[in-house]
Design goal:
It contains 5 helices and 28 strands. It is mainly beta.
Length: about 450
């Protein structure tokens, strides 16, 4: 859904350093055997799906050495043979270490249900989140349009419980974490106008009256019961896309803001990266806006080894916090400390549209960023046509050390990547039905998984 909503926002990564880098930059990491053995070559490629549209959103390594991928599908054939309705359902795939499919299951009903994030839980099962319109099938409740929908699964993908959280408007969940008490914290977007009409503010004394769309965070226990929930934002459109738990038990959320009032201060442009920290009870600790006078949208955040954070997304700006832009939109990578202070920033991209969807930690303390690129210059040295899946590796200071793009003649998008213990990179994305790296497509779009050794 991000691709649809923010197609005009496509971005790229920052290649430049700020004056604060020398003051705050980390020591150069030592090379490891894994890093030395990384060749940047394709080990294998797999694609999964049916004749419809199949889209991954997130990838996690599992305790048994394999992987789990969550997304959504409207296919009813190919790898999706247990479905009869051509509507979107959550789609969870479990793979072994070599990318072979062990099992695949869908969850949803007769309406539009889109999986966004998965975690493997302490008991070896899974928790998945996204947004759903169904009140039938696997879902038992819907308040109207999309609701946040959480499903708890056992280790083989069987439903243990499911809960829907929302009001009569469009409420989207994009990310979740399991907390140390066995519960969960999930974030996303609250349609506050509809929620207010449903009497939401009368149901909680903690809420303030403002906004069109808000950052929405909900803490639930291990059985899905609400413990508390808060929203934050201003009078315009604000959306949280990703969350991590801080070392002190609080939570740091990243997304974008169009507002310049209420909870949001020191704005830079029409859309900014907006990052905020709340404590373990949901009270606001700090909030920061990052960007230039143009448009910035952040998509992901990861906690670094030193207890700080990096946030990635895209930028159209050439000023204020952005020290360089390679053209159109670039991926933007920033590092902030636990108080929200900007330590450094980098852009990556070329003269066309380049965008980031995910950032993860590399073994050497650097970062792996996945997204897509339409460029053929500057940081991008090839293009197969339209948008390609693009993955880049940086060191701990955000300096580009390796990059590669993969694609066919159509629109291809990268959504997540991680580094394995052997130093290889696993990359997941979406391929269009045109030729992609020699693969035979199964339908309109397929889930594609690439191992790079």
């Amino acid at each position: 859904m991000k691709r649809v909503i923010f197609l005009f926002f496509l971005v790229g990564f920052i290649n430049c350093s700020t004056d604060s880098e020398n003051e705050f930059g980390e020591n150069q990491p030592m090379e490891t055997e894994e890093e030395n053995s990384f060749e940047g070559e394709i080990d294998w490629i797999r694609n999964f799906g049916g004749s419809g549209e199949d889209t991954p959103r997130t990838l996690v390594a599992t305790l048994d050495g394999g992987y789990a991928i969550l997304g959504y599908t409207n296919s009813i054939d190919g790898d999706l043979t247990n479905r009869t309705l051509e509507v979107n359902d959550y789609w969870l795939l479990k793979l072994d270490v070599d990318g072979n499919l062990q099992w695949s299951k869908t969850y949803g009903g007769s309406m539009d249900d889109r999986g966004q994030s998965v975690v493997q839980t302490m008991d070896g099962g899974y928790a998945i989140t996204g947004y759903a319109m169904s009140s039938d099938g696997d879902g038992t409740k819907n308040e109207g349009f999309h609701d946040n929908w959480i499903v708890k699964l056992d280790a083989t993908g069987n439903i243990e419980w499911e809960r829907s959280y929302g009001f009569s408007g469009h409420d989207h969940s994009y990310d979740l974490v399991q907390t140390s008490d066995g519960g969960y914290f999930f974030i996303g977007f609250l349609d506050i106008t509809a929620a207010r009409a449903d009497g939401y503010e009368e149901k909680s004394r903690f809420l303030t009256r403002h906004g069109v769309g808000e950052f929405w965070g909900t803490k639930i226990d291990a059985q899905g019961n609400i413990e508390w929930r808060r929203y934050f934002g201003g009078s315009n459109n604000d959306r949280a896309h990703a969350v991590v738990q801080a070392d002190d038990g609080g939570f740091v959320m990243a997304g974008f803001s169009e507002s310049d009032d209420f909870d949001i201060s020191n704005t830079k442009g029409s859309y900014d990266f907006w990052v905020l920290k709340i404590d373990s009870q949901g009270d606001l600790v700090w909030e920061r806006s990052f960007g230039g006078t143009g448009i910035e949208v952040s998509q992901d955040i990861v906690k670094t080894n030193d207890g700080n954070y990096v946030v990635t997304g895209h930028t159209f700006s050439t000023d204020t916090d952005i020290s360089k832009n390679n053209g159109e939109a670039d991926i933007w990578l920033i590092k902030i400390d636990d108080s929200g202070n900007l330590l450094w920033e980098k852009t990556f991209g070329g003269s066309q549209f380049d965008a980031a969807e995910n950032v993860s930690l590399a073994q050497d303390g650097g970062f792996i960023i996945s997204g897509n690129s339409k460029s053929l210059d500057t940081d991008v040295n090839s293009n197969n046509g339209e948008n390609d899946i693009w993955v880049i590796k940086t060191d701990a200071k955000g300096i580009l050390t390796w990059q590669e793009n993969y694609g066919g003649a159509g629109l291809d998008f990268g959504f997540d990547a991680l580094q394995n213990q052997d130093g290889s990179i696993l990359l997941v994305g979406e391929m269009e039905e045109l030729d992609f790296q020699g693969l035979q497509s199964k339908g309109k779009t397929d889930l594609v998984l690439i191992k790079i050794k």
